[in-house]
Amino acid sequence: MLSLSLGLPEFKVIKHEKYSNYHLVSVEKNTWEERCIHCGFLSSTVHDRRTRKVRDLPLFNEDVYLLIHVKRYKCLGCLEVFSEQYESVLPGKHQTNRLREHLYQLCLDTTIQYVSLKMNIPYTTLERIFYSIAEEKAMEHQETLSKTMNQNHLVLSLDEVAVRKGHQYETVLMDAKLGSVLGMVHQRTTESTKQLLNQNVLSKEAVHTVVMDMWEPFHKAVKSMFPMTTIVVDKYHVIQKVTQALDKVRKKHSNLKKVRYLFLKGYEKLTDKQKIKLNEILEEHSDLACSYYLKEKLRDFYKIQDYDDAFDYLEEWIQLAWSSPFPSFHEVAQTLENWKAEILQYFFCPYTNGRIEGTNHKIKNIKRRAYGYRKLVRFRQRVFLECTGNTYKHHVK
Asked: Are 367 and 119 in contact (CB under 8 A)?
């Protein structure tokens, strides 16, 4: 018979029985005295014995159950009867601690339903195990994050993610340096954003920079909460505006539906074959040539190093956009004119929302994986654990 260590030092194995689809291992605690849970007196008087069956980690894809021979002691100090305690099994639980941790890890990045079927555990039992451990893990992550975050020079990212149809959004707050989700709140109004910032930022003076898109309620909330902070409009949202304007011009040509990617991609990222095809289209359609030139020129704007040069370059681009015959570019010119100061702050604080956009994609995958969540609290807890747990660890010494 194959002999393997149980891996639980506090127990000694009394008997091992193999059944058709599971193992039953009889164990008892190594010690013969226990400290009274009522008065703290050390007792060695065994009052009686009972058995307790708990589930342990599987062995070779077969379930393992521990039949614990529990010793109940009588305290000679206070005359109370009490059961011995175990490091590997919590009181009142039907699983070992290591099995509970294993089940929790399995549930991350997948659904509770899937793990329930795979491990042959009732859904409600597994759900209770997962969320009880998740709450403890979330508290640990929060404490570690508080120690890890640079409270004197915080750089925050704000963005929204759609969680349901009908314009149902969650506003996401992230530490742009650590890449850790700090909190989420329902909707993307000024008041809800203030609530999010107030709950997750300990010191208003510590916030140095906030990166966000051009959504007005976000800016109102940040200016109200942190009047001295630097606001940076995310560069990818600026480029997105001009790319959308170019796409509106392209849509006027019905024969160019299948070449959309040629216009949206950066010119330097195109293959030689794609560049030839694009150049042919631009030679044939002068309006697209003008629009494409404006798009690429704005992309070059973010390659500038000096603030004054960037200021002059942006002014020039806005004038070129106004002089073009395209209403979509007129709208972009007006938008950039309105947000000029926040856009130019990038050249003092070169932070973007790249990390939070990637996190938003993961948040959507979490939502899709479970086909939605009835309880937003659990959804946020999942996001916090899966999008924060490993991001700050390389900063911890």
From this structure: no
